[in-house]
Amino acid sequence: MSGESDFGIYVHWPYCAHICPYCDFNVYRARGQANVALIDAIEKDLAAHAARFGKRTARSLFFGGGTPSLLHGDEIARLIDAAARAFTLASDCEITLEANPEDSALFAEQAAAGVNRFSVGAQALDNAALKALGRRHDAASALRAVEAAAATGQRVSLDLIYAREGQSTEAWREELTRALELPVEHVSLYQLTIEPKTAFARRVERGQLTPPDMDAAASLYEATQEICAAAGFSGYEISNHARSEGARSKHNAIYWQSGDWVGVGPGAHGRMTHEGARYALEAQRRPADYIDAVAEHGLGWISETPLTAEERADEMLMMGLRIAEGVELAFVEALRGRPINREALAWLIEQNLIVRDNGRVRLAPAGRLLANKIAAELAV
Ligand SMILES: C[S@@+](CC[C@H](N)C(=O)[O-])C[C@H]1O[C@@H](n2cnc3c(N)ncnc32)[C@H](O)[C@@H]1O
Ligand code: SF4
Questions:
Q1: Angle at Cα 88 formed by Cα 268 and Cα 113, nearest 5°?
Q2: pLDDT at 363
Q3: How far is the CA of 155 from the centre of ligand 1 (A)?
Q4: Which pTM does this prediction carry?
Q5: 32 C-alpha to center of ligand 2: Å?
Q6: d(Cα 24, Cα 283) in Å, to the nearest integer?
Q7: At residue 122, what are phi and psi to the nearest 5 degrees?
Q8: Given the CA of residue 16, which atom of ligand 1 is nearest to it?
Q9: CB of 25 shorter than 6 A to ligand 1
Q10: DSSP string of 196-231, one letter each residue
């Protein structure tokens, strides 16, 4: 599975114009900091990764955040150039930018710099819902952003968050149906997660916010699958749907199929296989610490931990179960050196939560909302 052809680069841009109350990513308020010091550090970190792990060929370069769409075309071009000098970018390399609707005026110059896939963070197409999510854009600007991304001629994906407080299945059906009529080839549809230590978690503790219960969330998930399928979007992963095979995210496929990737930028994670070992890498979280680490040591990562065979197998199972194809059982068991929990496997099959065929295990529709729990049961 991990091989020379299966390699990607993740660049974390940690700044956001505003911090959303539900978000627990490694993010910091943009306060007019000069970008150049962080871009310089990322450039050096890319070179350090290539020196350590070899000049691999990347099939994907992903700018995630935070809000990397705050970067101007010349800044994106510098980062793409740095990645291309450190590694080799495949001729058909997918170059994705996570883009906030507020930044749509920059999309054309970002595409000219080399971005060939926009992942537009619309989150909702309803003004009241956007307000409740603490977003700064409205539905009309989300639609304008999709149009602006499509006008670049590049691939467009849309992110929505559902299972929001008070959201009825009917309203979500209507909103999702409208979203799928937009010029997008791919949608990522995430159920709202109340992450610990966020403003939303504090509101839930105080009884000021009540997200949908499990039954309501399951009904919303079912409606999601049904509407996407009817509109010709295949649910190829728990939260991701594509109009065609070619519209699937190449970058995320690297994560789901336990490929290799380097993660650069504050707090980025990576997984690299090198000389038979697989390493988990993690960068300094705070931007200033990351910049200092690169200045001092020439690299931004603070830890490089070899994974045990069991840890590798568990990750492969957890990530592989997320995709529609599932995961090859013999491969996982050979890697961990012992069978997975066969009793749990039989029980989960009996409960219609997973399916086993052709040597692979995959989630049945009813198991999709329980993926992590199921993977944990099987890994015991
Ligand atoms: C790290 S965010 C970056 C995208 C971009 N800054 C934005 O906000 O549009 C990537 C995606 O994660 C999803 N996300 C973030 N926090 C979430 C949460 N607590 N629950 C569900 N989805 C979440 C959103 O859909 C978002 O588009
Ligand atoms: S959801 Fe996006 S814009 Fe909001 S804080 Fe998180 S990364 Fe930043």
A1: 75
A2: 96
A3: 19
A4: 0.96
A5: 17
A6: 17
A7: -70, -45
A8: 6
A9: yes
A10: TTSHHHHHHHTTS-----HHHHHHHHHHHHHHHHHT
pLDDT at 115: 99
Contact 14, 265 (CB under 8 A): yes
**pLDDT value of residue 2:** 40
Give the DSSP letter string of 223-269: HHHHHHHHTT-EEEETTEEESSGGGS-HHHHHHHTT-EEEEESTT-E
Residue nearest to atom 6 of ligand 2 (CA): 23
Sheet containing 354-357, strands listed edge to edge, beginning at the edge strand earlier in sequence = 327-328, 360-363, 354-357
CB neighbours of residue 264 within 10 Å:
30
- For every residue of 286-315, DSSP letters joined together read SHHHHHHHHHHHS--EEEEEEPPHHHHHHH
- The CA distance from 262 to 352, in Å, is 37
User: Does ligand 2 come within 6 angstroms of the Cβ of 65?
Assistant: yes
Please state the atom number of ligand 1 nearest to the C-alpha of residue 25.
1
Q: How many CA atoms lie within 13 A of 221 on its CB side?
A: 20
Q: Mark 106-134 as b/e (b = at least 16 C-beta within 10 Å).
A: bbebbbebbbbbbbbbbbbbbeebbebbe
**Rounded distance between C-alpha atoms, residue 351 and residue 344, angstroms:** 10
Strands 260-264 and 15-16: unpaired
Cα maximum dimension of the chain:
57
| Token digits of residue 144 | 């304008």
Cα dihedral sign, 146-149-154-159: negative
Under 8 Å CB-to-CB from 220, ≥6 apart: which residues?
162, 163, 167, 169, 172, 191, 212
Are the C-beta atoms of 122 and 110 separated by less than 8 Å? no
- Position 5 scores a pLDDT of 52
Residue nearest to atom 14 of ligand 1 (CA): 23
Give the mean pLDDT per block of 10 residues along the chain (380 residues).
71 98 97 92 98 97 98 98 98 98 98 98 98 97 98 98 96 98 98 97 97 92 97 97 98 96 98 95 97 94 93 95 95 93 95 95 92 92
